[in-house]
């Protein structure tokens, strides 16, 4: 049985066309951690809260949320207290520090969560915020490969050019 305890839930699922996929797992991690930072919650409370904030159109599946919460626990970002057979998740100082480091990203994601109920121009603004947050996050990453910033700039220039040429 040795070597079987490294199960990373990275590869599978996520990119299928099942309903509105609001966030990928990476983004969802920030959102779930932010919800736990607001107040300690049980797993099903997190799912219900996400459903409410998005306006009922989207319910994250327990199969997506629970592994993610286990990962947050493994990373030391949340602590778990048992109440009967329920797990109450609370944020740890490490988790709070991680949120603070990624504040721009977290705020953009939470804004996007709030704006999903609406439509039109708000969505454009939300996407702009998200773009800005992800560019800052990926551009500043000390572990970034040498060419990453140049590639980000090339992508942004190409996108700008493409938008300019829209009818």
TrEMBL record:
It comes from the Bacteria. Pfam families: PadR. Residues 32-100 form the Transcription regulator PadR N-terminal domain. SUPFAM superfamilies: Winged helix' DNA-binding domain. InterPro entries: Tscrpt_reg_PadR_N, WH-like_DNA-bd_sf, WH_DNA-bd_sf. PANTHER family: TRANSCRIPTIONAL REGULATOR YQJI. This is PadR family transcriptional regulator. It comes from Pseudoduganella flava.
